[in-house]
Amino acid sequence: MPHPVPLGWREWLSLPDLGIVAVRAKVDTGARSSALHVLDQESFRRDGAEYVRFVLDTGVHGQGPQPAEARVIDRRRVTDSGGHVTERPFILTRLCLAGQEWEAEVNLTHRRNMLFPMLLGRTALAGRFLVDPASSFLQGDRPEGQPPP
């Protein structure tokens, strides 16, 4: 197995299946699953399968909310950091970070006033990355034209 790549506690990543070129992510080893904070979501059926249509704010300066849709692979109960339990839809999508691309399960949730639209949880990190909690953006600066975090 190759050596794990170092990450800071926050990084930029992309979600190409959703058309998201850059999203600010908090690398959260305390969270089991990864979460994408959506502004709005609506479930619908297509060819007998459940899908979800949603809108997200990527945290990219000057870029408005981005619409996206994905197939729902599961619905699970998730406990947030405040101990609140909610049922959330999970999607499977590609993540790109530090020159690596892989599929990961991501749950969709709406939380107000989030500084990071994406939480990258330990299941998606396992075996790929080591996290340095004293560092930020070890895998590159913000996208062109973005203000400092």
Automatic annotation (TrEMBL):
This is Retropepsin-like aspartic endopeptidase domain-containing protein. It comes from the Bacteria. InterPro entries: Asp_endopeptidase, Peptidase_aspartic_dom_sf. Residues 7-140 form the Retropepsin-like aspartic endopeptidase domain. It comes from Arenimonas metalli CF5-1.
